[in-house]
Amino acid sequence: MAKALPYHTIHEIFTRFRDAEAEPKGELHHVNVYTLVVAVALSAQATDAGVNRATAELFKIADTPQKMLDLGLEAVTEHIKTIGLYRNKAKNVIKLSQILVDEYGGEVPSSRTALQSLPGVGRKTANVVLNMWWGMPAQAVDTHIFRVGNRTLIAPGKDVEAVERAVEDNVPAEFQLHAHHWLILHGRYICVARKPKCGACLIRDLCVFEDKTPDPLPGKAKR
Fold first, then answer.
1. Per-residue pLDDT reduced to its tens digit, 54-80
2. For residue 89, which phi and psi values (nearest 5 degrees)?
3. In the chain, at which residue ranges do the beta strands (DSSP E only) sit?
4. I want to staple 140 with a disulfide (CB 3.0 to 4.6 A). Which of 38, 82, 98, 128 is the partner?
5. Tell me: the pLDDT tens digits for 87-111?
6. pLDDT tens by residue, 205-218
7. What's the rounded Cα separation, in Å, for the pair 171 and 98?
């Protein structure tokens, strides 16, 4: 596995990210920690925009575990039917809501282990919730962070857990809280899987990725 970038280079990268957007936000819509858990669980193999469309009406009428249970599986399924794997996801939403009511008094627990015990909630989902709601510097590694971490050598790793540890180990403490959002957004909009938009990249001169896309020719508009 390739060695990570030097400390000062990583510090400069995140300084630029912070200067460009000091308070990056997740793009999943939610009204409280419960709806955040549901939204993130629904986002697996789906886009944030697609989840937001599906939950816009759902969260107006079911923003607590008990309200979701009262709505019932059939209605939940109907609300989220535009999302991939919606039938299984609807079952998980009902199951996790029941567990929250039965075991946690309707409240969402604030430990990674407890969150991961909920149906449909994996480590990435738990880390998103811990970070976005409780301000814990947890690193939720998705395909975007995995790609950016390895391309740039900010956080190289052979699997998502290795990249998660690399972000925690390599990124200076002052940037930890927002690190995963900066990396996700960079991977989603600039360092995309195919034809990365290197001409628009604010860390291009610090990136070691060898297969950079060339800048547009003079007179051509950048995309």
1. 999 999 999 999 999 999 999 999 999
2. -65, -40
3. none
4. 128
5. 999 999 999 999 999 999 999 999 9
6. 999 998 888 765 44
7. 38
Give burial (CB, 10 Å; 0-12/13-18/19+) of 135.
Answer: exposed
DSSP, residue by residue, 100-112: HHHHHTTPPP-SH
Give yes or no for a contact between 63 and 32, defined as CB atoms under 8 angstroms apart: yes
Q: Which residues are catalytic?
A: 124, 142
DSSP secondary structure letters along 120-162: T--HHHHHHHHHHHH--------HHHHHHHHHHSSS--SSHHH
pTM: 0.88
How many residues can be counted in the chain?
223
Instruction: Encode 170-185: b = buried (16+ Cβ within 10 Å), e = exposed.
Output: bbeeebbebbbbbbbb
SS3 188: helix
The model's pLDDT over 160-193, given as tens digits with 9 standing for 90+, comes to 999 999 999 999 999 999 999 999 999 999 999 9
- 209 CB neighbour count, 10 Å cutoff: 17
